[in-house]
Amino acid sequence: MYDYNYGLTQTAPTTNGVEQFFDSLGSFGAAAILLIIVLALIALAVLILVVIANCKMFDKAGEKWWKGLIPLYSSWVETKIVGLAWYWFLIFAVLTGLLSNGTDGNSVVYFGLVLTSFNYNFNLAKKFGKSNGFAVFNTIFPVIGLPILAFGSSKYNKDAKVDPNGIFSVK
């Protein structure tokens, strides 16, 4: 008989795609996937902690806690909480937008965000009775600093003297 397949025969695969994928990874690949899953769960837990701390800080400042859940609106409310002028919100929003729209590696945008963040944290520290050192700490480690403000014993002082320009006050 004549072989019309030219000696090529098709056999059904013995494993499905998922099993074949994990078999091809080996033990290193499985460990890498497990590590990724663990790190993703840790990141999710940190995100939940920061969101809850932000809501608690809003509540301490006399704002409704749910205002801390809405991304852009929470930044606007935080600008009011820390006593900065409205244009600081605009500067922060524009810099964040530039960063998220692909200006990756633009040191001017990063530097502007660090300055804006420190300006927010400088006034926030004053409003909660903290030192300038805490403002620097909260700028570098906001994941630690925000829960300290939110769950700590510090009280929000609406009448604390802050400049609407923050660290860039003109006298």
Give a quick precis of the structure:
The chain is mostly helical and 171 residues long.
Q: How is this structure best described in words?
A:
- With 171 residues, the protein is an all-alpha fold.
- It has a domain at 51-168.
- 65% of the residues lie in helices and 0% in strands.
- The longest helix has 44 residues, at 17-60.
- The protein is elongated.
- The N and C termini lie far apart (100 Å).
- The model has no long low-confidence stretch (mean pLDDT 85).
Question: Strands, helices and their partners?
Answer:
Blueprint: H1 17-60, H2 71-82, H3 86-100, H4 107-127, H5 132-140, H6 142-151
Helix pairs in contact: 1-6, 2-3, 2-4, 3-4, 4-5, 5-6
Biggest pleated sheet: none
**pLDDT averaged over residues:** 85
Distance between the termini: 100 Å
Helix fraction, binned, reads 55-70%
What is the approximate shape? elongated
Number of alpha- plus pi-helical segments: 6
Q: Please provide the ordered H/E string of secondary-structure elements.
A: HHHHHH
Structural class comes to mainly alpha
Low-confidence stretches: none
Number of strands: 0
Percentage beta strand = under 5%
Rg value: 26 Å
List key phrases describing it.
single chain, 171 residues, mainly alpha
